[in-house]
Write a structure and sequence with these properties.
The protein has 272 residues and is an alpha+beta fold. The chain has two domains: 61 residues; 186 residues, Glutaredoxin, CATH 3.40.30. The strands form two sheets. Strands 1, 2, 3, 4 and 5 form a five-stranded antiparallel β-sheet that branches. Strands 6-8-7-9-10 form a five-stranded mixed β-sheet.
Length: 272
């Protein structure tokens, strides 16, 4: 028999959580109705936080009697522990390198102006194809941090314009913009990007690229990627998902390599 959905005093829960988490009065808190989980007598309690232009979605768990709140995650021993994040990732039509049939997918939310993202980009581009030529595919997802990186969004729009013209040329753009990150400013981004395009005229049309940048024709794609990051509660770059396993921050290659090997070994050992 299914447990009865608890009656929640949302004002009391908000007051308690503000005390628990030290949320200042300026943070707006919205609590949704409880939702059933696979665990009997335990319900998910989605909570939405906002402060100015910033927002974050999180969840707690509440007992059927409405008395106890849990902070953490619930795992099913018979399933993939990263299944929820894996289901939330939308990777179709995104820039990628490595075979589409690879058993491991590394999806990375990144920002072209972010110094740590530059480090991570170099780590992945230099090492993944050599170490895991058939086992790993890398997918790039835009997450420009508009509040602190003024040219990251225009750079993402430009990258999507390149990808729309020629998907394989995107990675040339990707490598170039990170290599020249220190030279780029909001007022010279377009000039620099079009200079790159003219030097790579065999793979991209500079005139079309300039028009695409001017009209921001691909901004909706960038917005969709940012919205996906928000759904996944990604709030910093780089953030990677290895078959759903979340890694926050730039990872040195030995760490990345070890995690990939361990996950590949686990998948092989538990293949059905």
């Amino acid at each position: 028999m299914a447990a009865t959905t608890p009656a929640v005093d949302k004002a009391a829960v908000e007051q308690y959580l503000r005390h628990l988490e030290l949320w200042v009065p300026q943070i707006k808190v919205v609590i949704d109705d409880p939702k059933p989980t696979p665990v009997p007598s335990l319900f998910e309690l989605p909570v939405h936080l906002s402060f100015g232009q910033a927002s974050k979605d999180t969840s707690y768990y509440i007992s059927a009697d409405g008395r106890h709140i849990l902070r953490g995650e619930v795992f099913d021993l018979k399933g993939n522990p990263f299944a929820n994040d894996l289901k939330s990732l939308r990777l179709e039509g995104q820039p990628s390198f490595g075979p589409a049939t690879a058993p491991m997918t590394v999806a990375i939310f990144s920002d072209f102006q972010c110094p740590l993202c530059k480090e991570e980009a170099k780590v992945l581009r230099e090492n993944v194809p050599k170490a895991f030529p058939t086992d790993v595919r890398v997918v790039f997802l835009d997450m420009p941090l508009d509040a602190i990186h003024p040219w990251a969004r225009p750079a993402s729009i430009a990258g999507r314009c390149v990808y729309a013209q020629n998907p394989s040329a995107f990675w040339s753009y990707f490598d170039w913009i990170y290599a020249h990150q220190g030279e780029i400013k909001p007022d010279n981004l377009k000039e620099k990007v079009l200079g790159w395009a003219k030097e790579n005229a065999t793979v991209v049309d500079a005139t079309k690229l300039g028009q695409c940048m001017d009209t921001r024709a691909t901004e909706a794609e960038v917005d969709r990627s940012v919205a996906e990051a928000k759904r996944l509660q990604v709030d910093s770059t780089p953030t990677s998902f290895l078959n759903g396993r979340r890694l926050v921050g730039a990872q040195p290659w030995p760490n990345f390599e070890q995690i990939i090997k361990l996950d590949l070994e686990y998948m092989k050992a538990h293949a059905k």
